[in-house]
Specification:
By secondary structure, this protein is mainly beta. The chain folds into four domains: about 5-60; about 75-85 and about 255-325, conserved putative lor/sdh protein from methanococcus maripaludis s2 fold, CATH 2.40.420.20; about 90-95 and about 180-255, Beta Barrel (Elongation Factor Tu (Ef-tu), domain 3); about 100-175, RNA polymerase II/Efflux pump adaptor protein, barrel-sandwich hybrid domain (OB fold (Dihydrolipoamide Acetyltransferase, E2P), Beta Barrel), CATH 2.40.50. The protein is built from three helices and 22 strands. The strands form four sheets. Strands 2, 3, 5, 10, 12, 13, 14, 15, 16, 17, 18, 19 and 20 form a 13-stranded antiparallel β-sheet that branches. It has a four-stranded antiparallel β-sheet with strand order 9-6-4-11, with no helix packed on it. A hairpin with a 2-residue loop joins strand 17 and strand 18 (about 270-280).
Length: about 325
């Protein structure tokens, strides 16, 4: 194709076309059409015009067979699977013994002996101490004071030889056959909890976990704070001691759906889309989302179990684009 024909086909402006063509006419005067320009300026302008037209022709011409726009886009896909997810609540508390029981002196007298120390385990019926009654001219056998509960001696308030009066505090037993934790729960979370619900207790310092369950739900909140008291039960286990700080995690409001990586979603304003692979092509499909779970988005509708959706690609995708799935 001659330069004259090439320029004629590339430009739609007749005036520019006539000016450019006239240069190739022998004996023509340029001053008739380009009075303001010098020959050097005009030659430079024509050279720039030729470059622009060549570029436009390359962009608008037919695509080459090996052009990247004709080659399939390499993608990685994932198969949609329905999973059950839930919200997680987290509260913390220190564990307590199931019960704490004090023992009082059954009679006045003098503590004759003490058989247990603080921290020692005691069973129901064990004699913890004895009291000798003192009355002038009369002698009495020592009165044994037995534990009414199994557990651990948490406090001993008397020593041998100490005089006591009837009703004085002698010792305290902590029932460690089980532990409890009392949590203060927000009013926005209390409706999601049920008696008997399993709970996971976690020690933040060691990472150890312990099973627990809800034993009691408070029906009336503290009106000053709006918080409800929830009591949990834990069985004794290695590492669990009274006063240990634990974090309690609840799985609530379970729901089913397809989880999609956040980066696999295409956002357009408030709407969400995914690219679904169908017969070596991708289709842009709108989906409805229902929250995020550990970096993934729950798709409640728009994507069915078993369908393949794109999670990454080596180039930008458009609706209907040919793709090659990298397995």
């Amino acid at each position: 194709m001659s330069a004259r024909s090439f320029l004629w086909q590339s430009y739609r402006d007749r005036e520019i076309a006539v000016k450019i063509l006239y240069i190739n006419i022998p004996g023509a005067s340029m001053s008739k059409f380009f009075p303001p320009y010098t020959s050097l300026q005009l030659a430079f302008s024509l050279w720039i015009s030729f470059l622009v037209v060549s570029t436009l022709g390359a962009q608008t011409g037919p695509a080459r067979p090996n052009s990247p726009t004709q080659q399939p886009v390499s993608v990685q896909v994932r198969t949609a699977e329905v999973e059950r997810v839930s919200d997680q609540l987290s509260y913390a508390a220190r564990i307590e013994p199931r019960g704490v029981f004090g023992r009082r002196a059954p009679n006045a007298g003098v503590v004759e002996s003490v058989q247990f120390r603080v921290g020692q385990a005691v069973r129901e019926g064990d004699t913890v101490l004895s009291i000798r009654r003192d009355q002038p001219g009369r002698e009495f056998l020592p009165v044994p004071v037995q534990s009414r509960h199994s557990g651990v001696i948490a406090d001993m308030q008397v020593v041998a030889g100490q005089e006591v009066r009837e009703g004085d505090e002698l010792y305290t037993v902590a029932d460690t056959g089980a532990f409890i934790a009392r949590l203060l729960i927000s009013d926005k979370d209390i409706d999601a909890l049920r008696v008997g619900m399993p709970v996971q207790a976690r020690d933040p310092s060691s990472g150890a976990t312990y099973p627990a369950r809800i034993d009691r739900l408070g029906l009336i909140p503290d009106y000053r704070t709006g918080l409800f008291t929830v009591e949990l039960n834990l069985r004794p286990a290695s590492g669990l001691i009274v006063g240990r700080f634990l974090r309690f995690e609840f799985d609530v409001r379970p729901t089913d759906g397809v989880l999609v990586p956040y980066d696999a979603l295409t956002r357009r304003g408030e709407r969400s889309f995914v690219f679904v692979v169908q017969e070596a092509e991708v289709r842009l499909r709108e989906v409805q989302t229902a929250g995020e779970y550990a970096g993934r988005v729950l798709v409640s509708s728009g994507l069915s179990e078993g369908e393949e959706f794109v999670v990454s690609s080596d180039r930008r995708l458009t609706d209907g684009r040919s793709v090659r799935v990298d397995r």
